[in-house]
Specification:
By secondary structure, the protein is mainly α.
Length: 137
């Protein structure tokens, strides 16, 4: 039995380390776990800086926190775009593969239809011959 890889397996195998990393980062940033952990981080950051008794490393209006988010967004946006571009490429490859499968199936169905018509014609010819023989008797 031949080992046939699916289009997804072929695409995954051809991905570079950077592409796989970008996909993982985009998947992580698009998850509830990330949103919840980011929210907890913000709450803790703000709480420590608002009620901090001795040390306020980022007092209100939390300029350092805003800088961190700006830096995160500056890196996240292109990484997410790379992952989306690869998803579009995967979708295109899958659509092409599906199209080719449909073309192959159509050809097979047409060949089967021709064969069935041939069998039907052969049976009809045999029936006609049998009827003619019965008329002769």
């Amino acid at each position: 039995m031949a080992n046939h890889k699916t289009w997804h397996e072929k695409h995954k195998a051809s991905s570079t380390f950077g592409q796989r990393l970008a996909d993982r980062v985009a998947n992580g940033m698009g998850s509830w776990a990330f949103i919840i952990s980011q929210t907890v981080f913000i709450i803790i950051w703000m709480a420590l800086n608002v009620i901090g008794i001795v040390f306020h490393w980022d007092a209100y209006p939390f300029i350092l926190l805003n800088l961190l988010f700006s830096t995160q967004a500056a890196y996240a946006a292109p990484i997410i775009m790379m992952a989306q571009n690869r998803q579009s490429e995967r979708d295109r490859i899958q659509a092409q593969d599906d199209y080719q499968t449909n073309i192959d199936a159509k050809k097979e169905i047409e060949l089967l239809q021709i064969r069935l018509n041939s069998i039907e014609t052969e049976k009809l010819d045999k029936i006609i011959i049998m009827l003619e023989e019965m008329k002769k008797k």
